[in-house]
């Protein structure tokens, strides 16, 4: 069944990437911003031998409008199976709900991640590290994202409340960027490339690439394959091989120092 479902998405133009057996670790050299599968017959042999696979969100559009967007529910209490009429997969901790959409950026609520362009999501019938199966709950027919707007979930969710910077923080934090959010201006004050150089200097030595996207050896696990990525336009970081490493510059600092986001704000307030 893994091959069947992978073929369905491949035929719709969704980019596929190979993942290690019973793992979420993408094979070296592959990723949403790196190599993807180009010859499905060879990839089918990999799946037949037990390999997992992932789908690159934001890709598709071969027979429909828009690319793939996945709602990743880690909080099952937010998920109402009766409210959806689109392809849904049960995961180890919740559900993946699939849509087609144009230009959707990734963002997160408490218990729900919206996986827009540039992310990867484990494919149906892949095997989780704990042995559970990413199990489809219905037929792989995907709806457009516009069908989500009348869904009652939206009334249940509030964007996460970000901590305020400490009083007396340097004024130069607040004269950069167009956002009225003080926290957003703090984030804008430290580009992600500089954050890596300041807080993970060894990892910074491995940075490659030019323009918006950079690759580097992820600072948060043993990585020799440049699985980490940096989005210099949106000031974000992530990793194709581990779940821990993703977020904005505040998340990077807090992970690097083993502190909370509020403590990271205080740290940056005294350093920048």
Describe the structure.
- The chain is of the alpha+beta class and 272 residues long.
- It has helices spanning 2-11, 40-48, 153-156, 182-188, 192-199, 201-204, 249-257, 261-271; strands spanning 16-19, 52-56, 67-73, 88-90, 95-101, 107-109, 112-115, 120-122, 135-136, 143-144, 213-216, 228-231, 236-239, 246-248.
- It has two domains: 2-156, Prim-pol fold (2-Layer Sandwich), CATH 3.30.2250; 171-271, DNA Primase, Chain A, CATH 3.90.580.
- It is built from eight helices and 14 strands.
- The strands form three sheets. Strands 3, 4, 5, 6, 7, 9 and 10 form a seven-stranded mixed β-sheet that branches.
- A hairpin with a 4-residue loop joins β12 (228-231) and β13.
- α5 (192-199) packs parallel to α7 (249-257).
- The protein is globular, with a radius of gyration of 19 Å.
Question: What's the topology here?
Answer:
Elements: H1 2-11, E1 16-19, H2 40-48, E2 52-56, E3 67-73, E4 88-90, E5 95-101, E6 107-109, E7 112-115, E8 120-122, E9 135-136, E10 143-144, H3 153-156, H4 182-188, H5 192-199, H6 201-204, E11 213-216, E12 228-231, E13 236-239, E14 246-248, H7 249-257, H8 261-271
Parallel strand pairs: 5-10
Antiparallel strand pairs: 1-2, 2-8, 3-5, 3-7, 4-5, 4-9, 6-7, 11-12, 12-13, 13-14
Helix pairs in contact: 1-2, 5-7, 7-8
């Amino acid at each position: 069944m893994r091959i069947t479902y992978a073929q369905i998405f491949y035929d719709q133009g969704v980019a596929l990437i190979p993942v290690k057996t019973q793992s979420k670790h993408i094979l070296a050299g592959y990723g949403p911003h790196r190599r993807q599968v180009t010859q499905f017959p060879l990839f089918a042999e990999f799946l037949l031998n037990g390999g997992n696979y992932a789908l690159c969100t934001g890709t598709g559009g071969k027979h429909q409008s828009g690319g793939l967007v996945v709602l990743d529910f880690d909080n099952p209490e937010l998920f109402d199976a009766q409210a959806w009429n689109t392809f849904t997969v049960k995961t180890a901790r919740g559900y993946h709900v699939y849509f087609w959409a144009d230009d959707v950026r990734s963002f997160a609520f408490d218990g729900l991640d919206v996986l827009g362009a540039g992310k990867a999501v484990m494919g149906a019938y892949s095997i989780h590290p704990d042995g559970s199966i990413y199990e489809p709950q219905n037929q792989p027919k995907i709806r457009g994202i516009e069908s989500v707007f009348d869904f009652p979930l939206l009334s249940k969710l509030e964007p996460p409340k970000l901590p305020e910077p400490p009083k007396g923080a340097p004024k130069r934090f607040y004269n950069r960027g167009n956002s009225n959010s003080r926290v957003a201006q703090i984030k804008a004050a430290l580009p992600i490339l500089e954050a890596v150089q300041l807080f993970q200097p060894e990892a910074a030595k491995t940075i490659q690439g030019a323009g918006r996207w950079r690759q580097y050896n992820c600072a948060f696990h043993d990585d020799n394959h440049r699985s980490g990525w940096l989005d210099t336009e949106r000031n974000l970081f992530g990793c194709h091989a581990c779940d821990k490493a993703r977020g904005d510059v505040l998340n990077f600092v807090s992970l690097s120092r083993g502190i909370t986001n509020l403590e990271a704000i205080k740290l940056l307030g005294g350093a920048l």
